[in-house]
User: What shape does this take?
Amino acid sequence: MPLYLPSSGATTPTATTAQYIANTAGVVLSPDAVWGSGVEAAPGFITSFAPALDLYINARLTLTANFTLANPAVMKPGQSGRIRLIQDATGGRTIAYGSYWKKAAGDPSALSTAAGAVDILYYDVIDSTTIKYTLSKGIA
Assistant: This one.
């Protein structure tokens, strides 16, 4: 299928991965930008982590202390992704959630606590103050 370009013969710039994630106007998508957006970011661990959903979709954190998954400053309704949470060699790290993070009744919210345990938190941004999450525990 041909790509639509303006009839004036002008070319439209191809989006970078960062532009795709940031929802930049005036650029066209390329497969590289779309697939590149799924690569896990590895931001440095801090005890109050607010995912930068305007910079990445998926993330990976190695937990070295108890922490709070804080509300993101920027998020786009309809965005979804995952955060891989890895217990360090000590384990026993816990999580608290900011007010935007909501789970379905009966879904787990506590992390696996064994040393080296891996959990994956899947999220879906519903609106400007609601992020629905599901926690998959004990990923081998």
Remarks:
- The domain at 40-136 is CATH 2.60.120 (Jelly Rolls).
- DSSP finds two helices and eight strands in the chain.
- The longest strand covers residues 118-127.
